[in-house]
Design a protein that fits this description.
binds zinc ion, 34% helix, 8-stranded parallel beta sheet, 15 helices, Urease, subunit C, domain 1, 8-stranded mixed beta sheet
Amino acid sequence: MIVIKAKYIIQDNAHYIENGAVAIEGNKIRKVGTFDEVKVPADNATIIDLKNTALLPGLINTHAHLDLTSLKNRIAPTNNFTHWVFQLVGAKARWKADDYAASIKEGIALCIESGTTTVADITHSGHSFPILEKSPLRKVVYKEIIGLNPAYAQKIISKASLDLSDISTTDSYNIGISPHAPYSVSKELYKAASRLAKEKNLLVCTHIAETQDEIEFLAKGTGNLPVLLQKLKAIPDGWQPPERKPIQYLYEAGVLNEKMLLIHCNYLTEEEMSMIRSSGASVAFCPKSHHFFGHKNHPLSKLLEEGINVGLGTDSLASNDTLDILEEMKFLYAHYSLPPEVIFSIATKNGAKALGMETNIGQIREGFEADMCGIRLTNNSTGNVYEQILDTPSKNIFTMVAGAVCYNAND
Ligand SMILES: [Zn+2]
């Protein structure tokens, strides 16, 4: 048994215990209470005293591309999305398997060090599967698929199905499929991915409503995206714009449901928001990546008011300078007028729900998986404990996934 003591045990957005302790047996949380309430057996118990630290449910990153980690500071910030894609394609043009592997491993280390215990990672090349499988993180790895030509939809799905069929999932390793985005995926391919997901019980995520370029392309077939797609030879002959908004496109394909994770959702109409709400789909919002591209006014508060589940993501280091979810939380606190308790939920419980794991992770509760992180508070922190976590110098010092200590900088 391991018993962790901390100044605060923050169970969720509404419950915390001062001078608390958590007892862990195997991969599960067995007891949560004050240190006196959590009776420590005389023998065979390891006690970890995190002192001036808030112990939180492990942070959940609902959107990452860990294979792009080594591109940190190599892609210039731009509000021209297609210009960004060209930079990205150029930067990794000569990458081999070893380059991907090094980048993914660096990403895993950064996640663990910063208190992330669960990551939802998208891989196009497939390199993430074996590497993340061996990592101590809890993860969902999504196979990315692309294809705007409906004639190839079935072929693409058969190949993806074959790629995924070798993978054995576990409690801490789940897989999914990610049709890339509506400007690169036909309705037929979205439908086929959704059918495969049902058949194999896969999670699904897609980039959606990310840029004004995407909206223009779907509405009229014009703008910057056709130029990009022509260059990449990704636009089929005779392609016609669907004349739909991004979420309508998914709705009409019949793929909006509670297993769908919608990445970005930067630009939505009222009608699209109500489609998301009634479908039960979740949203992954990436605040710092959103800022990198110069987008304005993410409808985060409106989504939350509507009762839509929103989790937090970092996106990749090709459009962010950090994979640290605590940094994203602090960024939200500084730039969006949300109470710290709400930001706490977005990074924990909401993220768990977005990945279909809300009955196992996202809270410090008896019977839940022992996924936790310890945020060292500053001595002069003021405000309630949720505000103290978001104090600028606070920092993760301890990461545990499934009862195993993965990182400990406690002194
Ligand atoms: Zn992405």
